[in-house]
């Protein structure tokens, strides 16, 4: 939240963000997402991370017949209907709904089931640094770290 | 455990004991770690027997800790839900409790220590309101910081660990140069971390307590604070850079260099400029003194008998042997206690001649000391990664002893 005066955080902006988090709470409860062992959120407007995550997801899906029922209790939340073609369970989510879940998750760790497929969301995530430092690639991070969390 | 968490653990156990909660029940701990060992010691000292320590790590299962076996979590199902109780003193309490529930265990699960104020697996109105208030408290702290440092780049070291702060400070100048950052202000937890940051002559430094720091971090996450970095390899929960270790390797130091700050692998750390000269002491024979550092907050440590044997070896060689102690820690038998401020440790080690320590933040602080240095590692995994502690926290150039529990 950008501020003209760094030492003052606008009450209006803050309340808007709490409202957004509350919407995230309503979304999670309404759709019964606690029924899944993993909820994979794919923020669509997220640069190269989305493309890498979508590609890694295809590979993950191809591997799915070999996983146990507990491990396959996964749902993908994405604005991209192409995710449905992976054969994985998919639910459409708008950009605002995506932001609301991320706002809720930034407010507190309300679940251990949520996996956010992004290199820099929520705020403070620093996976991009591994790419900038030349340690890893987007493809590798998407497959081994982002979607790697689905195996945990 | 640090003092606060230890006190919390004792208070929780005392409360349960006073209500006869343990009476007639098989007591289990979940998660073998240094905190669990402290809790075990306290329970045994109170005459409360512990049936077993549950642990997911197959490598640890079968070991004995103070005569108590380490077993798979499924072992709990051999005991009735009404006549057993599980105590957890671990950061991942919520996940561990959830795992026991998935195993169909419906007995009492107790959070012995609140290591993780960020997590609450609930979307109830009460939880949401409590967490909202927590964010607001953090925002109040942030506003106070920004009132004093409105344009400084805020560098937050969220965890009370000397080594984490040491490397966050060591690579900070290179990060600032890369990003074109001018002034910075550093926020740390506790006086020890404050002293560690002080080794790098940090003028703009804020020292918070654990609760204030957690709340500040949550506020930063929620408002997406500009002109700020949370400089840690493993926290908070929203950052998953530690997940890289599951299939790949990056050392502890490289985590700060590359993952936290995005610096290329060859970037050299800055050396601290705030170390002072050790003036000498009756406890020391220059060049023929051994400083033992057997204590660490968050790592399983070898028993006193290990250190006594080590001390005995050097005493027989005619060396003086001292034990680095802080607070209630006691010196190893046959050695003299040594308490020094952190800014004298490097020069004291050089004066002494030989430092032998359990892998801890003190070893990081001594990384620039030019003397004989030996690091002791327990033979175990680092946290929930599949990587050995001695590999991740390797100290290049140090002699190494790997102790198997």
What labels would you give this structure?
heterodimer; A: 152 residues; alpha/beta; 5 helices; B: 405 residues; six-stranded mixed β-sheet; 18% strand
Task: Explain how this protein is built.
The complex is a heterodimer of chains A (152) and B (405). With 152 residues, chain A is an alpha/beta fold. Chain A has 5 helices and 4 strands. In chain A, helix 2 (48-62) links the parallel strand 1 and strand 2 (74-78). The radius of gyration of chain A is 16 Å and the shape is globular. The two termini of chain A are 32 Å apart. The model of chain A has no long low-confidence stretch (mean pLDDT 89). A 6-stranded mixed beta sheet of chain B has the order 3-4-2-1-5-6, sandwiched between helices. A 6-stranded parallel beta sheet of chain B has the order 13-12-11-14-15-16. The interface between A and B is large, with 46 and 55 residues.
Quick structural overview:
The complex is a heterodimer of chains A (152) and B (405). By secondary structure, chain A is an alpha/beta fold. Chain A is built from five helices and four strands.
* Helix content, binned percent of chain A: 40-55%
- The helix content of chain B is 25-40%
User: Quick one: overall form of chain B?
Assistant: globular
Q: Given the structure, what is the number of helices of chain B?
A: 13
Category by helix and strand content of chain A: alpha/beta
The rounded Rg of chain B comes to: 22 Å
Low-confidence stretches of chain B: none
In oligomeric terms, what are we looking at?
A: heterodimer
Distance between the termini of chain B: 19 Å
SS elements, strand count of chain A: 4
């Amino acid at each position: 939240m950008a501020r003209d005066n760094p030492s003052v955080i606008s009450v209006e902006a803050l309340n808007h963000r709490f409202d957004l988090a509350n919407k995230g709470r309503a979304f999670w409860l309404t759709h019964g997402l606690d029924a899944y062992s993993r909820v994979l959120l794919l923020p669509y407007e997220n640069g190269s991370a989305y493309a890498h995550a979508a590609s890694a997801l295809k590979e993950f899906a191809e591997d799915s017949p070999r996983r146990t029922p507990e491990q396959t209790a996964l749902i993908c939340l994405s604005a991209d209907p192409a995710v449905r073609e992976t054969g994985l369970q998919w639910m459409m989510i708008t950009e605002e709904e995506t932001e609301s879940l991320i706002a809720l998750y930034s407010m507190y760790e309300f679940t251990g089931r949520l996996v956010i497929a992004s290199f820099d969301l929520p705020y403070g995530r620093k996976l991009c640094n591994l790419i900038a430092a030349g340690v890893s690639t987007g493809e590798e991070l998407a497959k081994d770290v982002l979607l790697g969390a689905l195996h945990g | 455990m640090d003092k606060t968490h230890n006190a919390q653990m004792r208070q929780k156990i005392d409360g349960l004991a006073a209500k006869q909660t343990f009476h007639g029940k098989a007591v289990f701990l979940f998660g073998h770690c240094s905190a669990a060992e402290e809790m075990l010691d306290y329970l045994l000292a109170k005459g409360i027997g512990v049936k077993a320590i549950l642990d997911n790590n197959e490598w640890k299962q079968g070991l004995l800790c103070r005569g108590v076996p380490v077993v798979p979590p499924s072992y709990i199902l051999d005991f009735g839900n009404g006549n057993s109780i599980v105590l957890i003193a671990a950061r991942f309490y919520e996940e561990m409790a959830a795992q026991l529930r998935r195993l169909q265990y419906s007995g009492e699960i107790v959070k012995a220590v609140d290591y993780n104020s960020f997590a609450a697996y609930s979307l109830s109105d009460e939880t949401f309101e409590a967490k909202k208030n927590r964010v607001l408290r953090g925002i109040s702290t942030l506003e106070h910081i920004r009132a004093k440092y409105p344009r400084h780049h805020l560098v937050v070291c969220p965890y009370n660990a000397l080594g984490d702060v040491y490397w966050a400070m060591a690579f900070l100048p290179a990060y600032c140069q890369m990003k074109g950052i001018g002034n910075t202000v550093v926020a740390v937890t506790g006086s020890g971390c404050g002293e560690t940051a002080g080794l790098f002559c940090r003028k703009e430094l804020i020292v918070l307590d654990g609760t204030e720091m957690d709340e500040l971090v949550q506020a930063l996450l929620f408002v997406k604070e500009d002109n700020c970095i949370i400089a840690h390899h493993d926290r908070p929960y929203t950052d998953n850079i530690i997940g890289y270790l599951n299939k790949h390797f990056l050392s502890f130091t490289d985590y700060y260099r590359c993952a936290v700050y995005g610096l290329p692998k060859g970037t050299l750390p800055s050396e601290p400029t705030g170390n002072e000269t050790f003036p000498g002491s009756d406890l020391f024979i220059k060049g023929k003194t051994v400083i033992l550092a057997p204590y660490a907050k968050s790592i399983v440590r070898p028993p006193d008998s290990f250190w006594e044997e080590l001390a005995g070896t050097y005493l027989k060689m005619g060396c003086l042997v001292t034990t680095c102690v802080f607070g209630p820690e006691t010196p190893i038998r046959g050695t003299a206690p040594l308490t020094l401020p952190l800014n004298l440790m490097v020069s004291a080690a050089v004066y002494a001649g030989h430092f032998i320590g359990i892998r801890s933040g003190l070893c990081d602080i001594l990384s620039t000391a030019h003397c004989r240095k030996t690091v002791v590692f327990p033979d175990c995994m680092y946290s929930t990664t599949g990587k050995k502690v001695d590999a991740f926290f390797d100290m290049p150039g140090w002699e190494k002893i790997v102790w198997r529990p």
